[in-house]
From TrEMBL, chain A:
Family matches, as Pfam families: BPD_transp_1
Protein name: Putative glutamine ABC transporter permease protein GlnM
TM annotation in the entry: 29-47, 104-124, 145-163, 195-216, 228-248, 282-301, 356-377, 383-405
InterPro entries with a match to the protein in the record: AA_ABC_transptr_permease_3TM, ArtM/GltK/GlnP/TcyL/YhdX-like, MetI-like, MetI-like_sf
UniProt membrane topology term: Multi-pass membrane protein
Protein family (similarity comment): Belongs to the binding-protein-dependent transport system permease family. HisMQ subfamily.
From TrEMBL, chain B:
Principal location: membrane
Gene (name only): yhdY
Record flagged with keyword Transmembrane helix: yes
Transmembrane segments: 48-68, 120-139, 146-165, 177-197, 209-230, 250-275, 296-314, 326-349, 426-446
Residue span(s) of domain ABC transmembrane type-1: 251-447
UniProt keyword terms in alphabetical order: Cell membrane, Membrane, Transmembrane, Transmembrane helix, Transport
Protein name: Inner membrane amino-acid ABC transporter permease protein YhdY
Localization per Swiss-Prot or TrEMBL: Cell inner membrane; Cell membrane
InterPro entries assigned to the protein according to its UniProt record, in alphabetical order: AA_ABC_transptr_permease_3TM, ArtM/GltK/GlnP/TcyL/YhdX-like, MetI-like, MetI-like_sf
Keyword Transport carried by entry: yes
Biological source species: Pelagimonas phthalicica
Length: 414, 459
């Protein structure tokens, strides 16, 4: 090509292959095709290699090992109680179930308390009171700048330091909750025949309260009359189940933890399997996850409240709403719109961070399933895949729920 | 109205009284900032509010006092400061406070792990270069662009040679990655061809269009190809010996993993974010699936994947260095989070910016490089720094696949029976927490400073 062509080439002059090269769609298709081929080649190679490696080790791909009995000892937790785990009899699938249950109970407890503590810290950080504000600021800055794993180690060691030894007992609430380095012991309800009627009464009472709330709101919207919704709801919620419980002949006994203080020294301490029990590892994780995530939630809440224009709080003051009511009815509902998306990702973070339990041996999904079971049966591909699928499912469900909630509180615009 | 009826008429201006004592000075400050919120009993709800505030204030103050007094007592008043007789645990066990001789004795391990003591100058030189580079970029200094480019290209190579030593002669470990000495010849050919084609569009427009791709590919291969040459030259100059990565440890590993993650996650995250914004479906959904899957699973499972599952997908006999695997896991993990942060910035760009770029006749990459990315990245600086802080804290997780980072190293020293006292663990936790706090808090303060500086024009 000559230099004159170089100077004044315009898209019209291009033809044939050159036009194709400069065509946006063709280019995009070409690069996508390259990408697709690359991905397929990678997947093909990975599958080939995996098949080769498995064949070399004399293994087969498959989930048949789930039916094998598992003889590992697992710390008594919510999950083992729910599944009824017995070493040697329960299968590996039971271990999966109990580890997922342990992850979920940790995540739910953590999310619940982290939300409360986080909102408290976020609101405290905006207080005009220097002491309160200073406390919240120090709390948030310290907690979120120290790795969670370090905090878990700290709580795990600190709880064992402050608790009395395994042959002694301390108490939080005299007569109700007792603890030592082996864990926290409390009463455990044992149900008898007919208790399901009480449970049904609880469900009916909840339904009745919701229906009554809607009715009361409708009455208020139409006539302006306010009903004592709170008092009546509490009365229904407590009254109905209690009545059914008494009529059916109190089908519930409470089992108290049994503290053995006599006999051979090694048998002293709390008797295993009597009463309810919380492992110290659970408490360490729970405290670390809650306090750590609460710091992040506090920052989110602060930012959300600050995002509400100042005119809103001034207007509610002009209407004569006292501080608490203005916060509840005017500021927070608007702040919620800003708060919810990042709050969702904090909830998901907490759930994923619960996998750090692997470091201190609380039997949740990663620790017991991707750890102990993986070492025992050596099915790396299947086990890691199952773990990933479980976490993705939890993430997806949480996101769906929070999106639904977000759509409910979202500002409806034109 | 006549003047007679007026009983008193001021004829001169009254002197300005000083403000009431409750408004100024220490008393005023205390009243305004502490007691005012607890002293309003004019109505029922305000009374409840005041009582709650009183409880909160007293509770916070007591809690703070308890923590600060406890910390002072632990670190100073009942601590053990020296161990002149070298009796180790006996020196500390008598006091209820911190065991500082333990920290002194283990400080080397906290910093360098099991790095051989005679070679430790190499780590120090690498860290010094890092500190100088970061300080140069953080404070307003001349030629920051050049320094940034050096930090992203030359520094990793230099510090790799410094930390690991000569890779070519060495058979195993990281050496394999860089072992292709025959590579430069091929690459020189590719570079030459690309350069020839690109010059004046010598073989027509098609070649001119293909040439940039060739040059890019050549540059990428060239990086790998010339690395052995560069590292060899460095090695001859420095005369280093190989220190296997399993001897690295402590803060060194923490910084290596964190900086690798930080350096890799930004460009990878940018590409993923652009991919997610793209109109091309295959590109878009590849990015979306990668981002969402990685964000949906915990880092531990990514590390387990890298350590337990990855070997199955590689060719039989191929094995990676464990540290490198963990680093790749951390990089991919943080890239997914970075992509979402950057996507937020891209979405915040007004459409006019894209259209303005198009109307100037800029190509897609020119638009991104010159118009969109600089603005998008500026708006999301807090998010980017938060991701960096998260990444820095998450490097502690490598201890679960038994790589001894700062926290892992400290945990490992706790098993040393010669220092086993009831307070050793807490002393260690406190020191490590302080180190992490300094790094993370420093980063977050710097992000606040940058934010204020860059947003000045908008206020």
């Amino acid at each position: 090509m000559t230099t004159t062509n170089e100077v004044d080439h315009t898209p019209e002059e291009r033809s044939g292959l050159a036009a194709l090269v400069y065509d946006g769609k063709a280019r995009s298709l070409f690069f996508q095709g390259v990408l697709a081929i690359l991905i397929m080649v990678m997947i093909y190679l990975a599958v080939q290699n995996a098949a080769q490696n498995l064949a070399d080790q004399g293994k087969e791909f498959g989930f048949g090992f789930f039916d094998r009995p598992s003889d590992i000892q697992i710390l008594t937790t919510f999950g083992t109680w729910l599944v009824g785990y017995v070493p040697g009899e329960s299968t590996i699938f039971d271990v999966l179930k109990l580890s997922v249950a342990n992850t979920l109970i940790l995540a739910i407890a953590g999310i619940f308390f982290a939300t409360i503590l986080g909102f408290l810290m976020g609101i405290m950080r905006l207080s005009s009171n220097f002491v309160v504000k200073g406390f919240a600021t120090i709390y948030i800055e310290v907690m979120r700048n120290i790795p969670l794993l370090l905090q878990i180690f700290f709580w795990n060691a600190a709880l064992r330091l402050i608790a009395p030894g395994p042959r002694d007992a301390g108490t939080f609430v005299p007569g109700l909750l007792q603890f030592n380095t082996k864990g926290i012991y409390g009463p455990f309800p044992i149900t008898h025949d007919g208790f399901y009627l009480t449970m049904m009464a609880v469900i009916i009472a909840i339904g009745a309260v919701i229906a009554y709330g809607k009715y009361a709101k409708k009455v208020q919207e139409q006539t302006g009359k306010q009903s004592p919704v709170f008092l009546i709801s509490v009365a229904i919620l407590i009254g109905l189940p209690t009545l059914v419980f008494l009529i059916t002949g109190r089908p519930l006994t409470i089992e108290w933890p049994n503290f053995v203080s006599e006999g051979p020294v090694l048998r002293r301490g709390f008797e295993r399997g009597v009463g309810s029990y919380i492992a110290p590892e659970f408490m360490a994780l729970f405290l670390a996850l809650t306090t750590y995530t609460a710091a992040f939630i506090g920052e989110i809440v602060r930012a959300g409240i600050q995002a509400v224009p100042k005119g809103q709080s001034e207007a509610s003051e002009a209407l004569g709403l006292p501080g608490g009511l203005a916060m509840r009815k005017v500021i927070l509902p608007q702040a919620f719109r800003v708060i919810i998306p990042p709050l969702t990702s904090q909830y998901l973070n907490l759930t994923k961070n619960s996998s750090l339990a692997a470091a201190i041996g609380y039997p949740e999904l990663v620790a017991v399933f991707a750890g102990t079971i993986l070492n025992q049966v050596g099915r790396a591909i299947e086990i890691v895949a199952v773990v990933i699928i479980v976490y993705l499912t939890i993430s997806l469900l949480t996101s769906l729920f929070m999106n639904w909630f977000n759509n409910r509180v979202k500002l409806v615009e034109r | 109205m006549t003047e007679k009826n007026i009983a008193y008429l001021r004829t001169s201006e009254a002197p300005t009284l000083p403000p009431p004592a409750s408004e100024v000075g220490i008393r005023g400050w205390l009243w305004k900032n502490i007691f005012a919120s607890m002293a309003d009993y004019s109505s029922v709800s305000k009374t409840i509010n005041s009582i709650l505030m009183t409880i909160l204030t007293v509770g916070s103050a007591l809690f703070l006092y308890w923590i600060i007094a406890g910390l002072l007592d632990f670190t100073l008043f009942s601590a053990t400061f020296s161990d002149p007789e070298g009796v180790k645990r006996e020196a500390c066990v008598v006091n209820a406070g911190a065991c500082w001789p333990y920290v002194q004795a283990k400080w080397y391990q906290f910093m360098y792990g099991f790095y051989p003591a005679e070679e430790v100058w190499r780590v120090n030189v690498a860290m010094f270069l890092l500190a100088v580079g970061i300080a140069w970029l953080v404070f307003p200094m001349p030629r920051r662009g050049l320094v940034a480019a050096l930090m992203l290209t030359a520094f990793p190579i230099v510090s790799f040679v410094l930390l690991n030593g000569m890779p070519i002669e060495h058979d195993g470990d990281l050496g394999k990655v860089f072992a292709g000495v025959w590579f430069p010849l091929i690459v020189a050919g590719v570079v030459g061809a690309g350069w020839f084609l690109a010059r004046d569009g010598r073989l027509g427009e098609v070649a001119a269009a293909v040439a940039p791709i060739l040059l890019m590919a050549a540059a990428l291969f060239g990086l790998f190809a010339f690395l052995p040459l560069i590292t060899a030259a460095l090695d001859i100059a420095l005369g280093t010996e190989v220190v296997e990565t399993n001897q690295w440890g402590g803060l060194t590993i923490t910084l290596v993993v964190a900086i690798a993650g930080i350096v890799a996650s930004l460009p990878l995250g940018m590409l993923l974010a652009l991919g997610r914004q793209s109109n091309a479906p295959i590109l878009k959904y590849t990015s979306v699936i990668f981002i969402e899957v990685v964000r949906g699973i915990p880092l531990i499972s990514v590390l387990f994947f890298a350590s337990a599952m990855l070997p199955y997908f590689l060719e039989p006999g191929v094995d990676f260095n464990k540290l490198l695997r963990a680093m790749i896991g951390v990089m991919l993990f943080s890239a997914a989070y970075m992509a979402e942060v950057i996507r937020g910035g891209l979405q915040a760009m007004p459409k006019g910016q894209y259209e303005g770029g198009m109307s100037l006749g800029l190509s897609y990459w020119q638009q991104m490089r010159l118009i969109i990315m600089p603005q998008a990245l500026t708006t999301v600086i807090p998010g980017i720094v938060n991701t960096f802080i998260g990444l820095f804290k998450d490097t502690t997780l490598v201890l679960i696949i038994s790589i001894f980072d700062l926290l892992g190293m400290m945990n490992a020293t706790l098993t040393d029976p010669t220092w086993a006292t009831p307070t050793t663990a807490y002393t260690g936790y406190l020191v490590i927490a302080l180190i992490y706090f300094v790094f993370c808090f420093g980063m977050s303060r710097y992000s606040v400073y940058m934010e204020n500086k860059l947003h000045r024009g908008h206020r």
